[in-house]
Structure formats: C-alpha cells, structure tokens
Amino acid sequence: MPLPTLPTHPVADPAAVVQGEHYRITVLTEGLLRLEHSPDGVFEDRPSTFALHRRQPVPEFRVVDRGTHLEVVTRRLRLTYDKGPFTTSGLSVAVLGAVTSWHSVWRYGQDDDGRNLGGTARTLDEADGAVPLEPGVAGRNGYAVIDDSTSLLLTDDGWVAPRDDARTDLYVFAYGHDHAEAVRALYAVSGAQPVVPRWALGNWWSRYHRYTADEYRALLTRFRAAGVPFSVAVLDMDWHVTDVDPAIGSGWTGYTWDRDLFPDPAAFLADVHARGLRVTLNVHPADGVGPHEEAYAAMCAALGLDPSTRDPIAFDVTDEAFLTAYLDVLHRDLEADGVDFWWIDWQQGAHSRVAGIDPLWMLNHFHFLDNARDGRRPLTFSRYAGPGSHRYPVGFSGDAVISWASLAFQPHFTAAAANIGYGWWSHDVGGHMFGAKDDELATRWVQLGTFSPVLRLHSSHNPFLTKEPWSYGPEHAAVQTDFLRLRHRLVPYLHTMNHRAAREGVPLVTPMYHRWSRHPEAYRVPGQLAFGSQLLVAPVTAPRDPASVTAAVRAWLPDGTWVDVLTGLVYDGGREVVLHRDLTSVPVLAPAGALVPLDAADVPGDDPVEPEALEVLVVVGADGAFTLVEDDGTGDGLDESRVARTPLVWDQAAGVLTVGPVRGAHGFLPATRTWTVTFLSVADDVRPVATVEGGTVDPVVARAADGRLRVTVADVPVDATLRVGLGAEPALRPNDVAGRLHRVLDAAQVGYELKSRVLDVLTSPRPLHVRLAHLAALDVPPALRAAVEEVVLARAEGDGRTARS
Hints:
The chain is α+β, with helices and mostly antiparallel strands. Helices cover 22% and strands 22% of the residues. It has 16 helices and 39 strands. The strands form eight sheets. It has a seven-stranded parallel sheet. A hairpin with a 3-residue loop joins strand 1 and strand 2 (23-29). The chain is globular, with a radius of gyration of 28 Å. The two termini are 54 Å apart. 48% of the residues are buried.
C-alpha cells in the first residue's frame, strides 16, 4: 500500500520572492518572511516538516535596492540586508508600529535575551516543576524566529528526505504584539490544526496496571454506577506480552495480546465500544519485532526475511519498506479487532540511522495519516516533535512527578503551547510517579484537567497509585466526580471550539496575552487561561490555607464585569486580584454577554454524542452571540455539508435570548431538543417569557439561592426558533455579601468570637473604608482576611451596572 500524503502547496508565488545568486527572500505574509541563504545557489522548494504551504496570497510590499543593501518593507516590518552571507550586522528585521521603546529589531544570530514567550517542550518526563520551553512565534520584542534549516523534507511519493546542512532556512515572524495573528500565520504556512473527534473531548481513563479483561469491564461498570463518565479507554503496555526471553528484547515493545489477561481481545474491545468508549493501546516501537510475536512471520514475508532464523526485526523508521509493513502488518489486525487509535510511546531520543530523521516525528506523521484511511477522523496520541506537530494531535506530555510544583507549572505549559500552535496537550492528571498521596493535590489536578484541552487520568505502575475518585476521601471524591461530569457537560462548548481551532486558527487554550496583548497585566499571569471564546480560568495550584480553608490564585480581570460561572460571584474588572476558592471550586469567569452551551444532563453518558437536552449559561448586561457547531463525525470535519450550526443570540436591550433555527445539515441531530436557559446571577425582579416559532409556551422556571434562574422549554424542533425573554435591559443582581461572608467564615478554622466580630464589622452600615480599616485592626489570619476582603470588594457596592469587556 502506498504511503499516505498531506496536501501541500510548497512553492511560493514568484511575485512574493526577492532573489539573488545566493539568497532568497519570500514575503509570505505582511508579518512573516522566509529568509534563505545557499552557498551553491540552489534553494529548497519541497515541503518541510514545518512549512507545507508557502504559496500564500501575495501581501503588499515594496523593495528598495540601495546598491549596498536591500530593504523589503511591509505594513508590519522592514528588512535590511547586505546581500551577503547572513551576519548579525548584515541582516535585520525591524518590527514596525512602536512595539517596544527598545529592541524591536531582530538581527541574525543575536540572542533575543529571553524575550521569546516560549512554545512548548518535547516531554514532561520526570519534570518536578518548570522545564525550559522551546521558542514559539510570540515575543515581547515583537518578533520570533523558526529555524527550519535542518528539518525533514517531504517528497512527492509520501516519503522524506534530509536537508543539505550548508543551507540556511529561517522564518521570521514580525507581528509585534499581535501574537494571535502570528499563530494564524504559522497555521497558514504549516497547516491548520485538525478537527479532533468529538469523543476525544470527554474523559480518558488510563492507568499503568496489569488489568485483566474482566477487571477492566468491572471497573467500567463501577464508573457507570458511580456516574463518572469516560469516553476513551487507554490500555497501557500490559495489554501485550511482556514476559519474553531477554535475548529477544525487554518486553517493553509488543504487538501480541497477552491472552492470559485478555482471552478474547475482539470480544473485550466490542464490549468497551458497546459501553460508548473508544480504545487506544500503548505501543513502544523501539525494540522492533521479536520472533515471539504473532505477526512475526507476516512481517518477515513483507520484508523478504527468513523467519526460520528467528532473528528480531530491528525497528528502522528510515526504511520505507519497514515503515510500510509496520503499519500494514503489525497494526492492521489489531485495528480490525477494534483498536481506534494508538498511543505512540517513543522515549528514545531524536536520532535514527539517517541524520536529521527524528523517529518521533516520523511515527506521529505516518500514524496520523494512516489513522485517517477509509474516511475516518484521525487521531494519534504521542509526544511533541517540534514545529508542525500541531497537525498530529493529541499530545502526551509525559511522566511528570506528583507534586504541587508540577501542577503549578502545567497551566503555563498548556497555555504557552499555543505560541507554537500546539493546541491539544493531554497531561497525566494527578501526576505520574514518585511524590506522595495528597488528596487535595489530586483534586486540584482534576479541576485543571477539566479546563485543559484533553482530560486524561493516568499513573505509574504502583499498587497505591490509583486515580479512581473513590480512592480518595469522601470530600475529594465528591468534588472530583462533579468535575469529571462537568467535563462531559462541556463537550458542546468544547466541540464548537474544536471547530474554531481548525477553521479560525485559535487554540482552545491560549495565554491571556493573545487577546489582551497590549496590557502588561496579561503577561504577569502566565498560568491564567483563556478557555475558548467565552471563559477565563485561573487554575488553583496551591494547597488550602488551614485558617481560611481556601486556596489563593493570582489573576487579572480585564475591563468589564465578570461572573464566576461556578459560584455566581460578580466582579468588577480592570484589575489584578487574588481569588480564593474552597475545594469545590476554581475561578471560571465569564464576561457580560457570554453564552456557554452545555449538555443538560446532570450525569452525562460515556459517549458524548449530540445531546437531546442542552443548557445555555447566559450572563446578562451586554449583547452576546455564539454559534453552536456540531457535525456528523465523519471525514475531517471540514465538509460544511456535514456540519450543523445553531445560532444563540442575546439581545441585552430587549432582554431576549434567541436560539436557532439550525443551519446546514442536521439529520444526525435529535429532531427536537429540550433547552434550559440559565441566567447567572440575574436580578430577582425579572419575569421570563418563552415562545417557539412566535407562539407562547409555558416554560418550567426554577430559581436558585446563588441567583441562577433556569428556564426550561421541552420538545423544541431543531429547525424552529426559540425565544426566552426577561424584559428590557435585565441586570445582574447585587452580590449577597452578607451570605457569602457567612459561608466563608463558617468554614474558617478560627475562633467563633473572631468570626462574629469580622461578620459584624464587614456588614455594618459604616463606609467601606471604615469597615476595611477596622478589619485590618483585628487579629485575623492573613489568608482569611484576604478571602473576606475579596467578597466585599468583588464589586462596587450597590452597582448593578455591567459592561462588556
């Protein structure tokens, strides 16, 4: 079978090229240049692992030849070049637009002094805290560079070729502080993120453990009974035979089911599928294929080897015949039994028999393309292999140490990956190895996982390292269960963001400075996340204070009004703030006008299919719009004839939410849906009215103590228009300061008399500055004082106004 290929457009439009005997300058976009120098005068037009699409619309630019040097000028940059070998003095790119008051000029060979905002790293194996990040395309000085001089080249027949190492091939991004646009330029040249399967957005169960088929079935049954949903079942290496003759190999690599554990693999996989889960198997390919493998004879036949020698077949990713057989022989029968995709666990470095060929990149590339055959939506699960790896999700970040330091780094690590376009990291939620049991740490990690690209529980081969919620104390088990359910409830929102990532070049998780790049505060909260278009998340990554029984996280709220969707607390923005949360919550903030669609089920199913009942969270105070995107699950997800779009529009002046009608294909959707519209922290005086196709209906209305107003309308045809109104200009309710203070103080582990004094002081009718000064004079533990101050200062007293940021 011929090797699969990617679509490419590698040769730039000649109108975008400025060329001399030994140099070539290509203006790819107004902020992206390709700079090549070739001693032999030959330039590379084949696609590389990074650059697939150099043929871009030609931007407006001008060239000035001053004899001794060239200038190339676009709206965003000015290149100056002396036409010789690239040198620090002879080649520079100035970023236009007054990006910084100093150093907004890139010079060839000059260190950027750590001003690059970082991309990601190959792995977090054995990380216990922060690790160095490879460069991304965003920089505080307004520029960044990808050196593509040594990357692999893709040939027309689907194979690869090494580079001529005498040539220089650079991509200079000069987008100033327009970091999001720099990432879109990366996608334009390197290829977009794919639409991942909808089921990949649910929870993944994984544990390095020697399961039997019956044990695994029993575990899934118990998860379902406990209402803990999972959409992907991951089997670590013990699915295959591991007890082999050391003369053959280590047993780390294997392709033959261990039938002592799984007597009937096909029946086992069929049962897992029947429960609504997909399956991936771990494979460590480095040891090749031993003579004990069931596929050994077939591999020998495919490669022209004599099986009677019983010599192991070496893994050689540089051999096209071996790689073809590796896919067509080793994996095909296992896939026929029901394996949906592969966990490629390559840990042996970046070198192979041919200089420049990274086995990890080869495995990611060819496994992903192979998984797309027969019209399937492809998925792989593997480590990052450099720029361009975003085309092969999902990323496996590796075996991090179980520690608060590891947890504290992962939000930054996840967000910064967007700077190199890598949008689909999956971490070992709870940490992988070493460390000590800490129920609070595990719970906070699950909360981070809920607001990460992919949530996957995993742990090392240790009988005490388990991640089932019931393995922890009751308080922690309940919270973990709630967040694992919330993750599945978020799938309608996540899948819409999945389509946005592929079509618009915006990863699900981005740093704050992608959207607020000119605000210095956005750079001071590297662990705060923009989670899709509607939400900001400040993950809690430190333990609770013993007095306040809350954990603190530093955050920045942009201008406007923000509502915590989990607690209902309303905040005035435009400030840096320290937020405090008990174990049950993390800050998840939505601005006025936000619309967030959820699966309405309290306990969602394992397979996160298009739900019959949906809930939409609405934050009143400003106009808002959101289009729910769903698809039929076939192909690459980009065929509009297989995509359904349901518009959600909030009109603040009229106080009306309009839902539908659906546009595009919708035969795969339920014919009717139940819609629950939940208005967060809305004023008590509103009176909801609902219509379907203009006719009034009687909704089910429920109010909660935290200000949530739920309006439910059943059996709405998907091609009909639903409207839910509250009356003109509805407002957010004032925060229940007294009630919230009582709850914080009631939980605090301090003296009862002190609690009463604090409550009396902060709820007195005296001016705010007097109350806060009085509080400062009391002997209140600092963390508790900060927690109650947050409640009092969340919003200006008596201010019912809201504004869209």
